[in-house]
């Protein structure tokens, strides 16, 4: 995509079992192992949402192991 092209597609925020976040085109089914919990919007809106909610980048299994609960 050229730098001057504006991405007008809708996206959804997707999350995997390790509580890692990404974005995915809204018109496509999320890949295996990922779910779309509800956040939807422009690419930037989805990235902004992820920046708000994904405050600990460590995978869930690592966080649990470090707490001694995994």
> Assembly type of the shown chains?
single chain
Strand content: 15-25%
CATH homologous superfamily classification: Structural Genomics, Unknown Function 30-nov-00 1gh9 Mol_id
SSE string: EEEEHH
Radius of gyration: 14 Å
Largest sheet: 4 strands, antiparallel
Q: State the CATH class.
A: Alpha Beta
In angstroms, what separates the terminal alpha carbons? 43 Å
Q: Rough shape?
A: elongated
Into which percent range does the helicity of residues fall?
25-40%
Per CATH, the architecture is: Alpha-Beta Complex
**Arithmetic mean pLDDT:** 91
At CATH level 3, the topology is Rubredoxin-like
Identify low-pLDDT runs.
none
Count of discrete domains: 1
The number of helices is 2
Q: How many β-strands, per DSSP?
A: 4
GO biological process, one term: siderophore biosynthetic process
Protein name: MbtH protein
Organism: Actinokineospora globicatena
Pfam families: MbtH
For this entry, give a set of tags.
70 residues; alpha+beta; Rubredoxin-like; four-stranded antiparallel β-sheet; 2 helices; 4 strands
């Amino acid at each position: 995509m050229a730098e001057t092209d504006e991405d007008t597609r809708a996206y959804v925020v997707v999350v995997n079992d390790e509580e890692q976040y990404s974005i995915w085109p809204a018109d496509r089914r999320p890949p295996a192992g990922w779910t779309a919990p509800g956040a939807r919007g422009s690419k930037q809106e989805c990235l902004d949402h992820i920046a708000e909610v994904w405050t600990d980048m460590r995978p869930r299994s690592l966080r649990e192991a470090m707490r001694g609960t995994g």
